């Protein structure tokens, strides 16, 4: 196949990791230290259009209406080089990305971004990749993007090389009443990137080996909970997994955290709601923002309490979302 003569546009949604990966075995290929499991969300997504064009002397990358010229441009061009190598082409590309996710604030904007880019760029280059191969490609940009190729509950098999490290669906159509309440406590970019944080935890935390063992066990437990539609086990293990991941950061040298005062306040409020009989559990990625897993009947109580503390605009309700889709105007 040849590159397309018009732009290809793809949409991918972000995901929240319920069993997280935190550390890589291979940084160049982004091979993780443990397998992970996530839920794709319907409210946060990225739209990306790509076209490879003979007349371009360099990649032209527009992000939220602004032409990129910094490290972000170089990172995307490196990713496009992978696509060019796969397709056997040398043309540069025009890339237009619109992100409907607070960038770099712990809501996995890189997941939706590179999943959408993998879909649009590969098809624009003339490739017809399977979902598994798309997940492998997306992984080269961002590890969590591996899972955003798929809707609903999805997993990332850690593997040991490029071929064996890929995402796969667990339950793409979620037919039980699960919701996610996102609390956006800070929309600014985090000071310590996920990559920097992972390196520090792997290199210096004395508890890192225990983390890998526990996360591996959590993966099996959460996968069975999904099969059984056992929300309490799913929520409890997801919350504990998140807290253990962040404990690694506190045990690193030097110690660091993605939490702020509002993060700790939100955690306390979730515990209070649970003590009052509302089944809800929090998870937190590499940022201060909280995501709350709850059953649909508990959503109103969770939203009301969190809005009272942080304002109406800070609280968003999401549900299981779809996998990668292609958009035709």
From TrEMBL:
Domain Diphosphomevalonate decarboxylase-like N-terminal: 12-166
Domain (Mvd1 C-terminal): residue spans on this chain: 181-312
Keyword Lipid biosynthesis among record annotations: yes
Transmembrane parts of this sequence: none
Enzyme Commission identifier(s): 4.1.1.33
InterPro entries: GHMP_kinase_C_sf, Mev_decarb, Mev_diP_decarb, MVD-like_N, Mvd1_C, Ribosomal_Su5_D2-typ_SF, Ribsml_uS5_D2-typ_fold_subgr
GO molecular function: ATP binding; diphosphomevalonate decarboxylase activity
Swiss-Prot/TrEMBL GO biological process terms: isopentenyl diphosphate biosynthetic process, mevalonate pathway
One GO term describing the cellular component: cytosol
SUPFAM superfamilies in alphabetical order: GHMP Kinase, C-terminal domain (SSF55060), Ribosomal protein S5 domain 2-like (SSF54211)
Keyword ATP-binding in annotation: yes
UniProt keyword list: ATP-binding, Lipid biosynthesis, Lipid metabolism, Lyase, Nucleotide-binding
Entry's family note: Belongs to the diphosphomevalonate decarboxylase family.
Protein name as catalogued: diphosphomevalonate decarboxylase
Lineage of origin: Bacteria, Bacillati, Bacillota, Bacilli, Lactobacillales
